[in-house]
Design goal:
Number of helices of chain B: 11
Order of helices and strands of chain A: HEEHHHHHHHHHHHH
Order of helices and strands of chain B: HHHHHHHHHHH
Largest sheet of chain A: 2 strands, antiparallel
Distance between the termini of chain A: 35 Å
Radius of gyration of chain A: 26 Å
Structural class of chain A: mainly alpha
Oligomer: heterodimer
Number of strands of chain A: 2
Mean pLDDT of chain A: 85
Number of strands of chain B: 0
Chain lengths: ~300, ~290
């Protein structure tokens, strides 16, 4: 440090010149501060889950060592079946969210004047104004045996017996996931549609291309990075949000998040870390594959 | 809307969009509805009352939790939003964008329970390391830095909220043209003045939205806060323990409804503010560009 301070013996240098180089050298670091913070408190802890997962479990904590017991505990038990099952239902949620939500993103980009587009998308953050736990919890009186849906359907004479499959089942979890994560496919779809210029719709109309071919051959390839990012988000959160199976799921509806929090409650920290490590591996693999296929930095390119 | 569109189809699509928003809002509206019921949740009879709103402030558990939540929200916002702003500026200038994008957006993709567990174990280990260093140096100076506390909860929430602020600020920055900063610098302004007097007024809406969004996210976050907080209770942890044990108290419904009213008002006024401002600016621009009629 000292060697780089300017030579103050030079009488010609103006007053205060000793200060400004230091400030100028510090300024770039201020811009790097967020990245340093994220590396120290986010990237390193996430990477350390791999290390902690092989530590030895003690009565209340863990100690350095090397054992694969936590992984054995995960892969050779009902936990693996539950995990794979939650993957299946998470994929179903992704598909439902995409079918329901992506057309909205296309519609907003295509048919709403540019100045109003952001505001329409902003409508979808309104549900976030209430805590997710309340939103998920409030689904219980809607879905339960004598709840809003069953009562309405019975009163309309559509069903004779209440549908019990809506709550405390995998279906309940899927409904919760769709209700919680649908806005994210609208947001990411909206960002993704930035890559589809508006004139493309007119070109397709002029060429007599139907909506399905337009979607399959034009929109989908162009918007793929954003769609992929939104889908990964929903898929991984479907695997990792413990609240949903906890409140809406029944027996067997256990995802990775629930396994991890249950392990922490049981003071089995290596198991919780093994689950986190498995989740991080899943996530990183998905993001890496997506990046290789579509170059995910493109999502933000319209903004820079 | 273009010439090829069928106006009825257009209306139908709008209806669908609003229907989806309404469906997603159902739980929120339902909570608001219950909060005005004198008989509370699940009662057969509905009688309108404001009683529960009055009782919020006599519920000490709720008020204590509210104080902690507000403190967390303020601290997290004051740190996370400027950091997101710095990060957005860094991102705009960076040659290699992959690393900052990855680091700043990855927390979005890490589910709450996984992030919470990983940070919990890291902090506990870090705390152990700090105590060990303290023991070697013979000082108690390092004890308890990373014990689960307000600080660890705040760090967890900053990591959680930075991606949202980053994206919101980046969106508003997209409309800012760098040449303006160059012009300001050429006129002799230093970097800070060029930012504060020229760039900031143009991205202010984004910074305010990011702040509002951060406050709301912190207020409503449960998993990360409950894993990292240590001893104190926040609004959502009180709610969850009520839900799982005795059922939510009517005051809690009133409190949740109140939070969402405030949040919706905040977001609404930001939208209206930007609308009015955009309108005023475009009027000025139109007036300037209009040819002078004799």
């Amino acid at each position: 440090m000292e060697t780089s301070t300017p030579n103050v013996t030079d009488g010609a240098s103006p007053v205060g010149s000793t200060k400004s180089p230091l400030r100028e050298r510090l300024a770039p670091w201020a811009f790097r501060a967020p990245l340093i913070f994220m590396t120290v408190f986010f990237a390193i802890p996430m990477a350390m889950t791999f290390v902690f997962s092989v530590f030895e479990r003690t009565m209340f904590w863990m100690e350095p060592g090397f054992t694969l017991y936590a992984y054995e505990n995960f892969f050779f038990s009902a936990r693996l079946t539950n995990f794979l099952n939650s993957m299946k239902y998470s994929l179903i949620s992704v598909a439902i969210c995409f079918v329901l939500g992506f057309p909205i993103a296309v519609f907003v980009r295509k048919s709403i004047p540019q100045v109003a587009q952001h505001r329409v998308v902003l409508l979808f953050i309104l549900p976030f104004m209430v805590s997710e736990i309340i939103r998920v919890f409030a689904l219980r009186p809607v879905l339960q045996r004598n709840g809003l849906i069953n009562n309405t359907l019975t009163n309309l004479g559509i069903i004779d017996e209440p549908i019990t499959a809506l709550l405390y089942t995998h279906t309940g979890v899927v409904i919760g996931e769709v209700m919680s994560f649908l806005p994210f496919i609208v947001f990411s779809g909206f960002l993704a549609m930035e890559a589809v210029p508006k004139f493309i719709f007119e070109v397709c109309d002029d060429l007599g291309v139907g909506p399905w071919r337009r979607f399959k051959d034009v929109i989908l390839p162009l918007a793929a990075p954003g769609i992929f990012a939104g889908s990964v988000f929903i898929f991984v959160n479907g695997l990792g949000v413990a609240l949903l199976p906890n409140i809406l799921g029944g027996a067997g509806a256990v995802n990775a998040g629930l396994i991890a929090t249950q392990a922490i409650a049981a003071l089995d920290f290596p198991l919780a870390m093994a689950v986190s490590a498995i989740m991080m591996t899943t996530l990183m693999t998905l993001l890496w594959v997506g990046h290789k296929l579509f170059d995910l930095t493109k999502i933000l390119s319209p903004l820079s | 809307m273009n010439d090829y569109d069928n106006p009825w189809l257009h209306k139908l699509k709008w209806t669908y969009l609003l229907l989806i928003v309404l469906t997603l809002m159902t739980p929120v509206l339902y909570v608001m509805y219950v909060s005005f019921n004198a008989n509370g949740f699940g009662a057969n009879e509905y009688r309108f009352t404001l009683e529960w709103y009055g009782l919020i402030f006599s519920d000490e558990l709720l008020i204590g939790a509210l104080r902690w939540t507000l403190a967390l929200a303020v601290v997290v916002t004051v740190i996370a939003v400027p950091m997101a702003l710095l990060a957005a500026k860094y991102y705009k200038a960076a040659d290699n964008k992959l690393f900052p994008v990855f680091l700043l957006l990855a927390p979005l993709f890490v589910p709450p329970d996984i992030l919470g567990s990983a940070l919990l174990v890291s902090f506990k280990n870090l705390n152990g390391v700090f105590i060990w260093i303290g023991d070697i140096l013979g000082t108690g100076l390092f004890d308890g830095w990373f014990q689960l506390s307000f600080l660890t909860a705040a760090i967890g929430l900053i990591i959680y909220t930075i991606p949202y602020s980053f994206v919101v600020i980046l969106i508003t920055m997209g409309r800012y043209r760098k040449e303006q900063t160059e012009a300001a610098r050429a006129c002799g302004a230093n970097g800070w003045r060029a930012f504060w007097d020229i760039e900031f007024p143009q991205i202010r809406a984004g910074v305010f939205s990011a702040s509002a969004f951060t406050v709301i996210l912190v207020f409503n976050e449960y998993t990360r806060t409950s894993l990292l907080k240590g001893g104190f209770d926040t609004f959502t942890t009180v709610l969850i323990s009520q839900m799982l044990n005795t059922g939510m108290s009517p005051q809690s419904y009133a409190m949740s409804a109140l939070v969402s009213f405030v949040a919706i008002a905040a977001i609404g006024s930001i939208i209206i503010f930007t609308l009015v401002r955009a309108e005023a600016l475009s009027r000025v621009a139109r007036a300037k560009s209009e040819p002078v009629m004799s």
